[in-house]
Amino acid sequence: MSIIPDKPPFKILDILYKKEFILFIVLISILIINSNITPYFLDLYNLIDSTFLFSEKAIIALTMTFIIIARHIDLSVASIIAVSSCVLGYTTSLGYDTWMVLLLTLFSGALCGAFNGAIITKFAIPSIIVTIGTMSLFRGLAYSFLEDSYYNKFPKLVSNLGNGYLFGYIPYAFLTFILLAFVFAFILHKTSVGKKIYSIGNNPDAAQYTGIAVNRYTFVLFTLNGLFSAIAAIFLSGRLSSVRPNIAFGWELEIITMVVLGGVYIYGGSGTILGVVISIFILGMLSFGLGLLNIPGVGIIIFTGLLLILSIGFPSFVRTLRRKNE
Amino acid sequence: MKLELKNISKNFHGVKALQNVDFQLKANSIHALLGENGAGKSTLVKILCGVYQPDSGTINLNNKQEVITDPAVSLSLGISAIHQESVMFDELTVTENIFIGNHLTKSNGLIHWNLMHEKTKQLLDSLEANIEPNEKIKDLSIAQRHIVQISRSLIHDADIVIMDEPTAALSQKEINELYTIIQNLKNQDKSIIFISHKLDEVMEVCDDFTVLRDGQLIKSDKIFNTNKDQLITYMAGREVNQIFPKNHIKIENEIFQVRNFSKKTQFKNINFNLRKKEILGFYGLVGSGRTEIMKSIFGITKSDEGEIIFKDKKISISKPSEAINQGIVYLSEERQQLGITGLMSVKDNINMAIINKNSNFYIMDNLKEVKNAASMQEKLNIKVSYWSQLAQSLSGGNQQKTVISKWLSTKPEVLILDEPTKGIDVRSKSAVHEFMGELVGEGMSIIMISSELPEILGMCDRVVVMYRGLIKKVLDVKDASSEQIVKIASGEE
Amino acid sequence: MKKFLLNRDFILFIIICIGLISVGFANPLFITPSSISDVLTDTSILIILALSQMIVILIRAIDLSVASNLALSGMLISLLSTVHPELPVYYFIALSCIIGTILGVLNGVSIAILKVPFIVTTLGTMSIYRGLIYFVSDGKQVYSSEFSEDFLALIHFKFLSLSFLFWLAVAVFIIFYILLNHTRFGRNLYSLGGNPDAAKYIGINENKYIILAYSISGLFAGLCGYLWVARYSVASTQIAIGFELTVISACVVGGISVMGGVGTVLGCLLGALLIGLIRNALPAVDISQFWQLAISGAIILLAIIINTKTEQRKEKTVMVQE
Fold it and tell me: Minimal Cα–Cα distance from A284 to chain C, Å?
């Protein structure tokens, strides 16, 4: 009886087919091109400050990665940010203690997420449909609450979190993202929780038949996604120092792009945190570079949309072509 | 010759589904296409229907060579199939299902609903079927659906009608009606390819036969030149009595009882018991409630009333994880949907039910995983080259062994197998049977749902026969004849 | 008779009537003929878009890009009209339809040929098309004074004291009714959505139908681009933002199943009318316009839950006769 190896023999060429490797090459090329085009790019302070542009989205991208791997999607995250920001502004205006304000903000986000999760699992409705509904429900709640006014007073701590640096160098939002990325990578790739999420995403029915609590996982993941949206809302409100109901409009698209570009399969079951982190840097550096070149934000939106479609469309098109040639 | 296939070959990812197969169908005849599951019958049918293209070989229809590039071409050539799987449209009416893809239109290009309804009515009347053209398919019984499918082939004016196990889910009365329709078709100069596992019916209905095994042509001849035993030998490739390696094991006391199990519209008053080291068969038509009972026992669905007694204690199971913890596991009939997770590795599949046991405080222990996978692989002889190999790259038989490994990893005491040998090759099949014998020898108790009577008779100690959601009889296999079981399962006794 | 009373479309009709009457009690001005005619005019664009969205939903997909498509087509012809005010209005309408169709075909090709899931594709093009408006217009608006009289005249045309928009919606309804019930194309859409695997066996080319469905959705989005710009006499980057959700909610409320293959043209019309009624009735009963988004979100959720519940109940097969 021969011993079965874990993997086929290692070939150096295999690395080239790894999504993370390709993404890494893309990131390096962007850095090189950017620094050649404009001398301001490689400035350390500029680079660090550029992380403000994507850290809040990146935090949500981590939980969104889990959700998409588990064969779901959440289109309501940006609307949850709006709700949580309103709660943040409102509780501050009521004169609550800072910790109470933060607690209630986080709670509001988790509650929205739990609402998504409850409807999806209770009625067995696809998450895309449910979150299309809650996307306008939550955003609508923010509008009906704030109408055309806005909040601009937040606890000092919130403003510090949004604008401040640890040791004067590392923005808090970016630091939070990096720390959480390690935690999430560990959970997804090293623990039984991660293993179960992959099983659910690959074949939810089989996972249920294998005794995995699919509904409980789904519910918890959506609640977590709501909670993280609230964390992002705290950083964002602090940074912008003003909250209107249209805050973070369209972010769900950018967040999903981060995840999908990072090699997470949109129909669930595969993907890594490393890939998503690299793709976050790619998108961040790209928009930073385009910004330095004075290309307006709209250009970045169009570019993001194209990138999203092509990052899925191109590989599958190549695959079809190859299959036809065979 | 109506239809002539020559040297047809078809490979899927290196698996030879068909190798140089010849097939000849005479005008107005009924031709049985026989073989075990996985022998290549359905691949051959799908080639005729234009779903697959052969890698090599030629198809001659009325002595003219044809290339069937897609299903539409197949239909236009007059080939029509009545499939095992549902190719009906539940939300549409009978009329529309009959004319689907071929709606009649008025001169202005719009659909001629009245004419279609009228023709449907005539057709159904001529078949003496009591079906309203306006009914939706979802409201019909399985037998009525078959008749709609047959009507569809008639409307398309098909010369060749392929019937894939048309009688599998029918009662004896419905089967007799179907036979009449088939004979009528033959008298109208049509040729029929008849796929069935019921050899008695093949001997009775068919004119010619062709047997495939492992993708190769084994024998093709007139039906009156052969007999049932010979057909079985052709299909299995060895003597009949060798198929089921039943070990004679001493059965011990009762271990598992189901009392007064009922679920509205699905099953009613289900009572049975299972003894240690016993193999208990469940036989009945597709849709007789066998699977539904097992799903309720396993905690997938909830029964309305009833109780389960396991090792003299009443237990309650509300979800699969509770059943698994008690030592009761269920291997589903739908291997692709509910068993194997194709895009995960073989190792992950084998370990899927014991993820918690393979981790120390949530952190996965790779060594434990490999150990368990290796011991299972050795036990069941799964052919795998490395652990990270994706489960979908395995053959059907090895996939089934992988799913069985998944369940054995949990060290169960009661193993419920739902059609465990459906769609796997002959060798894996007998490996599974042999293994079942070993398991009961080690002290396990097995419930096996099967639609194959020889498998039930060969493997089980007792058999529970079901009809329309009710247990009609529990028989000792030693005293049971296949005729008797079939009769009870058709609701005639 | 009982079957008729339990018919979904009939129930929806009754709900609309009850709604109309109860709003009438709160504010009698709302149910005067001129006010109702205004509501109908106001809902016409929604009806047209809901009907074309229905085709996409029937084949188990969604087109989230319709509102952006509408805004982009509308902006392009508005810009052209400021440069060439002398061109006849039909020219602009045709052009708007063509632009919309091209944008729709792009969606279809991405989904059918590139195999990018519909949600990713239309989410992507939703922002691409919206972004392109900024590019072509430099973020500027085209105001009513910049349009030619001709350009705006058609929209004010009235027949039997009902507006051009209303009659157009009626025409589109009839076209869709015939298309979906009395042509092979329409019936094949139902088969494809109801059972895609089986549709393959009867020779329906899935890719062709996906591209066609999205083209139709695009065509009518383009048409509505002209209608929207002409009706509100303004083209900007912001027009119809979020309107795709209103369109989808009209379909869902109208009983078009997001699982594909189920739904009637009449139901879709009634769904759009109900949503239109609610949107117009809120101001009439003194509910702030800011509540609109939240209410349509809640309605989508409610409608989906009710649809799913009734569908699940139907699925159960009967084996034991009680």
Answer: 18
> Is A295 an interface residue toward C (CB < 8 Å)?
no
Residues 153 to 172 of A: which have CB under 8 A from any C CB? none
Query: For C125, which residue in chain A has the nearest alpha carbon?
Result: A305
Best CA proximity match to B90, nearest among B28, B38, B139, B151: B139
Contacts of C118 in chain A (CB under 8 A): none
Nearest CA in chain A to B296: A209
Whether residue B225 sits in one domain with residue B281: no
3-state secondary structure of A268: coil
Question: Nearest C-alpha of chain B: how many angstroms from A269?
Answer: 8
Chain segment B195-229, per-residue pLDDT in tens: 887 777 888 888 888 988 878 888 888 888 888 77
Task: Give the model's confidence band at B141: pLDDT under 50 very low, under 70 low, under 90 confident, else very high.
Answer: confident
For chain A, which residues make up each domain, given as ranges? 53-250
Q: Which residues, in sequence order, are CB contacts of B287 under 8 Å at separation 6+?
A: B142, B169, C317, C319
Q: Are A282 and A23 within 8 A, CB to CB?
A: yes
* Look-up of token digits 């009775």: B204
CATH classification of the domain holding B122: 3.40.50.300
Contact list, C318 vs chain B (CB under 8 Å): 265
Please report whether residue B246 resides in a domain.
no
pLDDT tens digit string along A110-148?
999 999 999 999 988 889 889 988 998 999 999 888 888
**H or E stretch covering B3:** strand B3-12
Q: Cα torsion at A165, A167, A168, A173 (round to 10°)? A: -20
ipTM confidence:
0.83
Strand-pair category, B216-222 with B363-364:
unpaired
Of B182, B206, B240, which residue sits at a domain end?
A: B240
**Cα–Cα distance for residue pair A276/A257, rounded to 1 Å:** 10
CA distance A217 to A188: 13
Do both B80 and B212 map to the same domain?
Answer: yes
Measured between beta carbons, the chain B residues lying within 8 angstroms of C203 are 70-73, 75, 101
CB atoms C191 and B267 under 8 Å: no
By residue range, what is the domain housing residue B313?
254-489
The 10 Å Cβ neighbour count of residue A80 is: 35
A147 touches chain C (CB under 8 A): yes
Regions of chain A where pLDDT drops below 50: 1
The verdict on a CB contact (< 8 Å) between B341 and A206 is yes
Q: How far is B46 from chain C (nearest CA, A)?
A: 10
Q: Is A199 in CB contact (< 8 Å) with chain B?
A: yes
pTM exceeding 0.90: no
Residues B236 and B309 in one domain: no
Judged by a CB distance cut-off of 8 A, whether residue A178 touches chain C is: no
Q: Tally C-beta pairs within 8 A across B and C.
A: 89
- d(CA B65, nearest CA chain A) in Å: 24
